[in-house]
Amino acid sequence: MTSVDFIARHRQTARDFTRRAIFTFDRVVGVLLVNLMRSLQVELDQFFSRLPLPSGRRANDDAFRMARKKLRWQAFVELNQAVLADLRPAPDWHGFRVVAGDSTTLYLPTTHPDTLREGGDGFGCYHTDTGIYSLARASALCEASTGLILRADLTSETEDERTVLASQLDQLQANDLLVLDRGYPAYWLFALLQAKQRHFCIRLKLDFSAQVRAFVASGAASAVIDITPNGAHRPGFAAHSLPLQPLRLRLVRVPLSSGQVEVLATSLLDEAQWPAAAFAALYQKRWRIEEAFRHLKCRLKLEQFGGETPQAIRQEFHAAILLHNLATIAAQDVLAQQKRDAQIHAPNLTHASHLVRLYLPQLLADPASIREIGPLLYDSIAQQVIRRRPDKPTSPRKANRKKPRHHRAYK
């Protein structure tokens, strides 16, 4: 992490991080990575309690605020890609690696004009009778078998989630299968995925088109259809330089235990190779990205931003993504070494995140200490592995009952 080239790429100016100071480049990265959940001075005192400092010197919160201004948020993005580079999870559905895509909104601090300004790095704001609030859209691609976040972007909440997804598609590999919920379907997105030769499975609203309504009424389990974009779809196709031509999709019916029906659109056309009965389990895998968002927002307290500028907010956002992935990798390694099935057993990710935060300062001070810390980390995570119960009965829900409030992973 202290590579000269890496530091040069991710500091604001050539003079930054050249003095012998308490807040070196790697220490600023480390402080942000352990997640600023409490008072900044309390977090600094705990972080530096494991690091040797010159006699009489103390890590001051004002000094840290000045030091973090020198760090580009892209450093955490590159670190995350480096962490993921050597990981190649095995395909987990008919030869495909399932990747789930989704977005969520985040409340932001409303005390800095750069955060509230429209355009650029700003996120926009909303005025209500109770005051001002600002929202951002966090969009991510998540590896469904492990929960690793392969790519994450933070944009204004007004940015369309399909447009953000289009910018993330280069992250997908040839054997990836993208699974999306019913907020994403669009003719131009189907065309873009097919142009990039990426397979997909996307849930549709039951009234998405006349062909979908006819399919629902037919009672068929699966059907291949040709859809023809018209002039109303031209702007989306033109924005992505796509020809306005017919597309071939397959519709799959997924009956639910409640009696309701879901309809999925997929590029996997061969019924014999990919039977309709297998798609219920496939779409269920999309829930892993919801669990990742819940971990970030409810356990890592992602919305408790310590900084107020767009630069500081993006630093903390991408640092939280990296912390989530480090904890996930540690937890998955425990399952692999114990030869436990990840579909049956689940480690306590909150506990694993806490352990990573706890030992990170010591690892920064002495990377060789991993030989001592590794076994401690392994034993602690191994004691917090639980058994999943996918067949656990749940209380019945009335079909038209409105939820009294949003799920706690959402706001």
Question: What is the CA–CA distance across the termini?
Answer: 35 Å
Kindly state the mean pLDDT as a whole number? Answer: 88
The value of Rg in angstroms is: 23 Å
Specify the structural class.
alpha+beta
% residues in beta strands: 15-25%
The largest sheet is: 9 strands, mixed
Number of helices: 15
How many separate domains? 3
Q: How does the overall form come out from the CA principal axes?
A: globular
The beta-strand count equals 11
Helix content: 25-40%
**String of helices and strands:** HHHHHEHEEEHEHEHEHEEHHHEHHE
Low-confidence stretches at least 5 residues in length (pLDDT < 50)?
A: none
Structure write-up:
By secondary structure, the protein is an alpha+beta fold. It folds into three domains: 71 residues, no CATH class; 201 residues, no CATH class; 85 residues, no CATH class. It is built from 15 helices and eleven strands. The strands form two sheets. Strands 1, 2, 3, 4, 5, 6, 7, 8 and 9 form a nine-stranded mixed β-sheet that branches. Strands 10-11 form a two-stranded antiparallel ribbon.
